[in-house]
Structure formats: C-alpha cells, structure tokens
Design goal:
By secondary structure, the protein is mainly α. The protein has six helices and no strands. The chain is globular.
C-alpha cells in the first residue's frame, strides 16, 4: 500500500527547535497515516464499549488540543468554546461523531496545525505563553514537548483502532 501522507523522519542531529518541531510534525503525520485510506464509517468506528474512542474522534480531539495550546495558551486567544466541545458536552470531540462531516473535521484539524505552526514560527523556545495553565507560566518548549507526548499517546490508540479495522499495523 502506498502512503499518500508524507512523513519525514526527524533528524538525528539538529538544534532543539528543529528537533522538537520535526518530532511534532512526525507525530502529526503519523495520525494522518493511521486514518489514510479508510471510509467515513471506518473512521467513526468505536473501539470497545464503553469507550467512545475512534480515529475521527482522535482527529477532532487533536484539532481542539492544537487550538488550545497554540492559540489559547501561547497567543492568549479566547478558546472558551472549541470546535466540537461545549461546557455541557466536554467530550463532544469524541462523542458527537455519528453524523460528523469527516472532510470538514479533517480540514479543521489541518487548519489548526497550520495555525499552530504560524503561531510558533520564529519564537524562541523560552517564549512564555500569554495565558497561564494551573497558575503557572508555560513556555513554547513545554507546549512542543507536551504536544509530542499528546500525539504519541493518541497514536498508540490509533494503532489499535486501525488494526481492529483492517489489520494494518506499523509505525
């Protein structure tokens, strides 16, 4: 099977900013690869009850996470309502997928990734976000490391979801 999503291995030797952004992009591409070639119904397929986990839910969740950390925390934008969640339904990114527009949801995720790249472009890693988290300052370095961790954890979930759908496994 030929992959349509380009994924570039992070460099083995680079400055810290290049290394962190390369690893984040690697994990973003990995999630896209896990979803590649599936139908809308397959992307909506839940893992095992009572979990509401699905590949589409992961994509929607990561759009929310990208927006929160880069737009909300780093830039200080108001993200009090997300793309998919509300104060009444904080898990809307995972729960409300039955009739979700898959193409629109992927477009939202890609737009948030692009916005995150623009938000952090050229900033020193020690840049402090304009919004605190749990009463403390958050640097761009912390955000990038956290985003790598967030994608890596959810890509593990995506591995199991994809294998359940068609047996495809891999990095």
């Amino acid at each position: 099977m030929t992959n349509l999503t380009p994924r570039v291995d992070p460099p083995m030797s680079a400055d810290e900013t290049t290394m962190l952004t390369a690893w984040l992009d690697f994990h973003r591409s990995t999630l896209a690869l896990k979803c590649e070639g599936l139908t809308d119904d397959q992307l909506r397929t839940r893992s095992v009850p009572p979990s509401s986990l699905s590949l589409l839910g992961l994509v929607r969740h990561m759009a929310e996470v990208e927006q929160y950390w880069f737009q909300g925390v780093l830039l200080g934008a108001d993200v009090s309502t997300g793309h998919y969640w509300t104060p009444e339904n904080e898990d809307g990114d995972f729960d409300d997928i039955a009739t979700a527009d898959v193409a629109a949801d992927f477009a939202t995720w890609h737009a948030e990734v692009d916005a995150a790249r623009r938000a952090s472009a050229g900033l020193p890693l020690d840049t402090v976000g304009k919004r605190q988290r749990r009463g403390g300052d958050v640097t761009l370095r912390w955000i990038l490391v956290h985003m790598i961790e967030e994608y890596a954890r959810h890509n593990g979930h995506a591995d199991f979801l994809r294998e359940q759908l068609d047996g495809r496994t891999g990095e």
